[in-house]
Amino acid sequence: MPTISINRDLLFSALGKCYSEEEFDELCFKFGIELDEVTSDKLIILKEQGTERSEGASEEVIYKIDIPANRYDLLCLEGLVQGLQVFLGETGFPPFKVIPSQTVPQRLIVKSSTCSIRPYAVAAVLRNIHFDQNTFNSFIDLQDKLHQNLCRKRSLVAIGTHDLDTVQGPFYYEALSPDSIKFQPLNQTKEFTASQLMDLYATDSHLRHYLPIIKDSPVYPVIKDSNGVVLSMPPIINGEHSKITLKTRNVFIECTATDLTKASIVLDTLVCMFSRYCQDQFTVEICEIETSQGGIKNYPILKTRQEKIDVNKINRMVGINEQADKVADLLTRMCLTATVAGNGCLSVTIPPTRHDIIHACDVYEDVAIAFGYNNIEKTLPSTNTIAAQFPLNKLSDQLRDQLAQAGFTEALTFSLCSKEDISDKLRKPLSSIPAVHVSNPKTLEFQVARSTLLPGLLKTIAANRKLPLPLKFFEVSDVVLKDKQRDVGARNCRKLCLVYYNKSPGFELVHGLLDRLMQLLEIPLDPTGTTGYSLKACDDATFFPGRCAHVVFAGATVGVLGVLHPEVVTSFDLNLPCSALELNVEPFL
Amino acid sequence: MAIAHGEKILKYLEENGKANSLRLSELWNEDHQKIVGTVKSLLCLGDVIEAELHSTVKWDLTEEGKQVTTHGSHEAQVYNAIPPSGSTQTEIMTQASILNAGFTKDMAKVGFSKAMSLGWIAVDKSSGAPKFIQKVSSIQDVVQEHLKELASGKNMLTNELRTEYKKRKLIQEIIVKSYEMKPGSSFSTSVTKQETDLTPEMITSGSWKTKEFKAYNLNALGTPVPRGHLHPLMKVRAEFRQIFLEMGFTEMPTNNYVESSFWNFDALFQPQQHPARDAHDTFFLADPATASDIPTDYMERVKNVHSHGGYGSQGYGYDWKVEEAKKNLLRTHTTAVSARMLYALAQGGFKPAKYFSIDRVFRNETLDATHLAEFHQIEGVIADYGLTLGNLIGVLYEFFRKLGIEKLRFKPAYNPYTEPSMEIFSYHPGLKKWVEIGNSGIFRPEMLLPMGLPEDVSVLAWGLSLERPTMIKYGYDNIRDLVGPKVNMQMVADNPLCRLDKHRGTEIKEPDYLQELDIRMDSILTRLRGIENEVSKLKKKDKGSPEKLTLVIEADPNYPPLSVQTLIRILMASRNAPVSVTIHQHSSLKKACSADLMQWAKSTISNVSRVDNLFNLTWIWKPVGPRPVAKVVNHYNGDICGETAVARLLARILESWTDCAFYENYDLNTTAEIDDWLDMWENCIQSGDPNFVVLINHIYNRLNCSDGRKWLTGVLPGTKSLADVFLSTVLGHKLNSDRAKEWLSRCNSF
């Protein structure tokens, strides 16, 4: 969920009303955003860098507000204020308009060389705009927020904004070899080649994260004007030459992308939020995009969609009973201007700022929000069903109860562990274990899914050595094993594991508990091993030689018990004898 | 032995009636501790004796002190070891230790310095090596005498001496505990040995009948019972499971941690570029890296709805890739299982269903005190025709009620696979704030329709973590104290039963005063509304043609009752009939009234004869003080005293003449509010408390501030009422006449 920082006083002055913190928090809650933190520049610096650095920093109150991930239209002060004012019924929703150019429309020519790296580009012009310091900052911040969220850290879309009066169209978007791109990037005093820039920014705390998007490509994307002036090298950096300032009057916006839909959404969002500062408010000048296939497309699209929505359906979905005109009012308050269209339908206008509305159900939700979630009458569904437990869970729970009654205490350990835990430490080669391997663990603790419950219990003993002996722990839980029969190539297996740790191994005790479990499961001892259960001596590297047996049930091995090998004991930082039983629960279902 | 002693003590008690353990120890020349032991064992016999413990402080000799009593003080020992001819220090030391083997070097050091300072000995350097000689021929060893006295039980030492000897470690303070005894209620002089416990032999022989048994110490703890335990988190899980089962939910088979991206994300209409699908957030698998088998038709429908839309959706408009869908991962939510269940439900011919699960899910998160890479998710799902958001809210209330959570509220939220989506907040009485406790929503059609579910089927779902409520329930602030191999198993052993609907610890349920007040308020309001109806009925009945009114008011020119004057002006203006006002001044006035006072109502005097007028007022300025008096001719018995009373009267008249709401024509709440203000104003006028001036100033400023409140009563911005008119008088009395005039001009416009 993105968080935006908004200067409180600017916000309230734009809203035309002062709120107490509680009032504003309440308003946010109803609207579906969250006042996350109230702070100031000074407090932030104080927290991060200490008292000294915070001297002299601004003490103006900043509201940090959490915005739902799909509401790109609320990511800046302008959008937030508009959304809230419409929600409060204080203002209507402005009509956004694409206007033709007074002269020749700006054109961006996309070369086919970009296909291999970043194939799409869109553009628009904001004409006769007037920034002040606050709106300028907001413009930059919004680009940053869009980059972080909708643009997926610039990988899907990258935005470049330029002072149109410093460059000369038409513009060319192409992909060139890194060494043939040379320009003075933003906030640098000299020219660099693209390769040099990669080195320069490798240590830049902000930009280095974007380098991998193009670094290994043989060609890098670049936008130039008709005189060869570099506007930007997306998605990394703009050129210094066309940099926008407070004095900029005409802004050329380009978005390059690997996802055309998102590029168009980003462009729409940006121009809708800031066209209010144009002389001709809420208008944006068209740009022509010559695609790599040669066709011409006009941007921004700023499409306003009309949807017919059945009022009954809305009422049914939300669980309210409102007249069509009331529902239309509710929707209008959510920036979805609606009118009663007859036949029990509403005609709902979906503006270009609400790209999150992709289905009627999104409209239903906005009705519910405007109505107030907490004003909806609580009702119980009439759905009548008979409950059932998952049999394996039921059996597991019954066994857990019995183990606790037998004096063992339940441990709850992690499903993930290190490779070492299930192999070396248990004296078994990793290759012999059908374990599931994680490809991107952040630490060694999460390399594999456990194939046995034993390591977790031994670690639990290690952490509890100070408790009085004997230590008797158990766990009934799932391990994960590779299994080609399954669609995902792996399955869970429900295991029961218990350990006994004392000055003497206590094999007979663990053995006795196995007998007890079998008695509870009504399985007789049957040394022939055909119907009941039996123990068969076996060699298992984890256990002490001659002190280990397989549990055989109905002809198949379902578990193992024995005295742990001293090397296993010591590899888990233990020093006393320990016996263990691990049993597969599933055959006993 | 103990018994023999015991009987001896009991005998003594019989003879003497009381005894003290210390006294007995001296008397019998027996170690005191032994006597005390015997007393204690006598006490165990029940009420044979009563004993009270006494502590006394006593000074006693130390070992060193005892030596002094036999061999003399250190200085005396040094003196005595010096031969008449004198000798060296070493020789003296040797001699002294011959005289007393226990004489140490340290003692000698003290002895030398004390003997020197007492002038008993001196150093003679005349013959080269320094020699000590006796300086006096005889000495009196006072220290030894003192200590001997102390040892013999006399304690004549002065405080100074006591301090000095204590410093010299010759004496010490000891605390002596002794018992003061007397016979108890079941006193007897013979002692029988008490048995500690019943034995098999006693049962066989029947000897238990004659034995006496030692009482148990019921204040001590019992012996810990060897036992096993279930894990607290699993106990909470059992409770949740029980709740779902009680509500008719069927448990889903969630025993598959490994899931394909398809079921975990794509089937849920979560786009392939969604941040949750980042390696930063999700554990992907290296082996087995991909899933092999995804239902082909279904996958095609999912692909279409993502890339092009359909089912009434615009879709996400991106290039959906099967490779991405096949990537295996550790499931990030149990909703992946719900998706499989719903798909299966659609394939087998849809029937309404309620499902739940509580199982592990995995997130590749940075670990901290509240986040682990794996946790338990609780999920509930209801699929049926025509379900509503109101249904979801209703079910959530019932579900959380079973957990002992009554107060909920819902916040709009975003989730890729639910729409509408709601975050669930509950009020935490311990933390005194709203905390998020779960997420909920209705599954999107883009998720359900490609599965093949009927179009009018809705699916409600909610989820929460198991760990969080458990941490809150048992007061953990670090999740690693609860889950994982590092958990202290003693915690598991000590953990109480899980009764989620029973409040304990930080969750102590406060009696809901607010709710009680609400209920009381509601019943009062209902009654008031009844009364209000009756009153208004009566009023209507009462309203005939306006009656004639003749009024005489006496007021003090030093306390002009501005509110009364204003009301009269309003009354006159409200009557489209002739009125007459005459103003007089009483002869008792010391100073003549100003023209202003004499003419305040003159402009409205009519020329018509009083007999025909509907309203006649005689106003007399008279030194009556701040409480004006009104008399209604032919109407009311008795005078009406005080400005508020007069104002109320005039307001009632005004309301009976016109339909305007001014005082009692308002609803009861407002009327009550007006009465409150009037009472306060009355207090204020009569009181000399300077705080009232501050208060009035404040109120006046508030009313003139731009934030919206214009009048004292009613909802913002308020409605003009009697209380406001009366404020003018208060302003006049307490602040200044300018303020009062300003305010009056605002009140005058009716």
TrEMBL record, chain A:
Start and end residues of each B5 domain: 302-378
PROSITE patterns per record: B5 (PS51483)
EC number(s) on file: 6.1.1.20
GO biological process: phenylalanyl-tRNA aminoacylation
Gene Ontology CC annotations of this record: phenylalanine-tRNA ligase complex
InterPro entries, A to Z: aa-tRNA-synth_II/BPL/LPL, B3/B4_tRNA-bd, DNA-bd_dom_put_sf, Phe-tRNA-ligase_IIc_bsu, Phe-tRNA-synth_IIc_bsu_arc_euk, Phe-tRNA_synthase-like_B3/B4, PheRS_beta_core, PhetRS_B1
Annotated GO MF terms: ATP binding; magnesium ion binding; phenylalanine-tRNA ligase activity; RNA binding
Record-linked Pfam families: B3_4, B5, PhetRS_B1, tRNA_synthFbeta
Organism domain of life: Eukaryota
Chief localization: cytoplasm
SMART domains assigned to the protein according to its UniProt record, in alphabetical order: B3_4 (SM00873), B5 (SM00874)
Catalytically driven reaction(s): tRNA(Phe) + L-phenylalanine + ATP = L-phenylalanyl-tRNA(Phe) + AMP + diphosphate + H(+)
Keywords: Aminoacyl-tRNA synthetase, ATP-binding, Cytoplasm, Ligase, Magnesium, Metal-binding, Nucleotide-binding, Protein biosynthesis
Subunit (UniProt): Tetramer of two alpha and two beta subunits.
Protein family (similarity comment): Belongs to the phenylalanyl-tRNA synthetase beta subunit family. Type 2 subfamily.
PANTHER family: PHENYLALANINE--TRNA LIGASE BETA SUBUNIT (PTHR10947:SF0), PHENYLALANYL-TRNA SYNTHETASE BETA CHAIN AND LEUCINE-RICH REPEAT-CONTAINING PROTEIN 47 (PTHR10947)
Protein name from the UniProt record: Phenylalanine--tRNA ligase beta subunit
Organism: Daphnia magna
From TrEMBL, chain B:
Enzyme class, UniProt record, top EC level: ligase
Domain of life: Eukaryota
UniProt subcellular location: Cytoplasm
NCBIfam families tied to this protein: pheS (TIGR00468), PRK04172.1 (NF003210)
Protein name: phenylalanine--tRNA ligase
UniProt domain Aminoacyl-transfer RNA synthetases class-II family profile: residue ranges: 235-485
Entries under PROSITE patterns matching the protein: AA_TRNA_LIGASE_II (PS50862)
Similarity remark: Belongs to the class-II aminoacyl-tRNA synthetase family. Phe-tRNA synthetase alpha subunit type 2 subfamily.
Keyword Magnesium included in the entry's annotation: yes
EC number annotated for this UniProt entry: 6.1.1.20
Coiled coil: 514-541
Pfam entry (one): PheRS_DBD3
Keywords: Aminoacyl-tRNA synthetase, ATP-binding, Coiled coil, Cytoplasm, Ligase, Magnesium, Metal-binding, Nucleotide-binding, Protein biosynthesis
Organism: Daphnia magna
